[in-house]
Amino acid sequence: MSEEVKHKIKVVPGEKSHQKKKKLADPTTASIDKATRQMITRSHDLEIETVFDRAANMKPCNIGVQGTCCKNCGMGPCRLPLPKNGIEGKDDRKGLCGASPNTIAARNFLRMIASGAAAHSDHGRCVAEIFLSAARQETEAYKIKDANKLISIAPHFNVETTIEIDGEIKDRNIDEIALEVAERALNEWGKPEDELLYLKRAPAPLYEKWKKNGVLPRNIDREIVEIMHRTHIGVDQDYKNMIKQGTRAALADGWGGSMMATDLQDILFGTPYPLQSEANLGVMKEDHVNIIIHGHEPVLSEMIVAVSQMKEMEDYANEKGAKGIQLSGICCTANEILQRHGVPLCGTFLQQELAIITGACDAMVVDIQCIFQNVANVAKCFHTKLITTHPIAKMEQDNVIHIEFDEHYALEDAKKIVRLAIDNFENRSADVIIPKQKGTQIAGFGVESIQYHLGGMFRGSYYTLNDNIINGRIRGVAGVVGCNNARTTHNEGHIAVVKELIKNDVLVLTTGCNGIACAMEGLLVPEAAGVYCGPGLAEVCETVGIPPVLHMGSCVDNSRILLAATEVVKAGGLGNDISDLPVAGSAPEWMSEKAISIGHYFVSSGVYTVFGVTLPTSGAPVFQDYLFNDLEKIYGGMWDIEDDPVKHAQKMIAHIDKKRQALGIDKARERVLVDMEARREMEVV
Ligand code: NFS
Predict the structure, then answer these.
(1) Nearest CA to ligand 1 atom 2
(2) Could you tell me the pTM of the whole model?
(3) Residues 260 and 112 in one domain
């Protein structure tokens, strides 16, 4: 970069990371991804601080990491770290009120579930409100796009899809169905009695377990409120009783708010089917207007996709000297518009600052969740316009523009934003350096498309998938999901866990930032099967033409994984419940409270779930043991933690093998004894 250009970059005092004593992140240990490393190095050259540098300078609090700091009242915070030499004899650690480490860790764990469930479910509520508005035909911008999906979910809301007229059964008007579904869906957040309607979509034995244990969620908001009440000083002081409420709120997320978000988004914006796209910072284009959409709700980004494809906008961009408009995404908004429109992924959670550091981001449009406040400081160093759009998510920095999104004027709002980005193209102040790296990917899998690829349209079931699990070609299925975490090397855990699983014939379903990481690494293409998979999984993938890692969407779309598992149960031959299946869950680099809620609804749905990095329960060994062991006796699923990615995957495989043995299908698998080398030899012959 020339001196002249460097001067144009406004680095605001206090934002430089280089005041003498501050350490800089080492790019090679910060990430396994070359594009990320290149941009971290550039951030150092430009003296712009990123999350990687902040992580190098601030250690996490040792007591908080253990989950044993209680700040729920004004007498604290009470800190109860494990003694250096461990607990000998009686554990008499207590907070001022007498709260035990179990009580404190359980309180904190529950509050994380509450926040995570609230985030997913409030997103779902917003979609439900827009769905209602579309059903009432109050908005031009949103319409029912997938009527078949509407008809398929209507019965779960007890909405009739046919009507008898003069003794004849006729299809009901689709608008009437939509209106009733919208009203009943919205009711799920606050209805005064009964239980969530979607719970009965789970396998019957699982529903019965929830019922027997008194954890059927009543309505979504109530379960979250009750957590806040029960974790207030002096209320629930029995970790076993507390975790029941955690289960109730987590189920209200997975089988409630998240599942409704997914379904209603599919109806409004289309159910995803496999399509091709790309991923990583290399998707940005120097000669185009680059608009990056970041956050979680697809309601606005859907409009931005539509608007940026309009001829008038394309012409306007040309007028301003750009060759076109390049849209790309970060975090789960990215996954939403990827799976429905093939819009490329710009990066994961940890790459949000780096996308601006390319110097090519003309506008970053953010809505809710996982948005660093520091993107505003980084944007200040460039020409980038940072636009917040959601009334509940604003930023204090003065360079942030707020354009509040209103579904009644959705297209106008989107046009305003796209024009702003185009107008900003000519203001680029720094050299543009866009890393070359990008991976090709096939994304957009879901319950319906797996059925098509692995079950067959006519069978309409998961027959082929089950058959291949039973005969051992597919050893089992793993859901590998979740965030990046700056406390561990970016994408290292994600990729190592997934590679170890597919090498051992475990089919991987992915969502969230794990999906983005896998896409960047080239694991989401059918050709990856021949390179990375064991012979059984490779054979299946090559025969049906699917990647060994199926990208199922955003984090609310983890509900698709729950429903896919339910379909596997229904297809038969693998037990009666999700907990009977040879499946496991994983979040190798988790960091958000949403991940804890997801982890807990997977566990409570019968899935052995392993997290990487740390779990905020280690300071309360008795409570942690309850999560890791006792829950299995209740729901069939349990928590675990393993930071080493290969051991992490091996623990999942051991669980899968345990389930295969219980099902009596372990012998079938023993017949598949060819390793990659043997397979290559066979091919030569
Ligand atoms: Ni999930 Fe999506 Fe990524 Fe983690 Fe954040 S984007 S909702 S929380 S960081 S996977």
Answers:
(1) 332
(2) 0.94
(3) yes
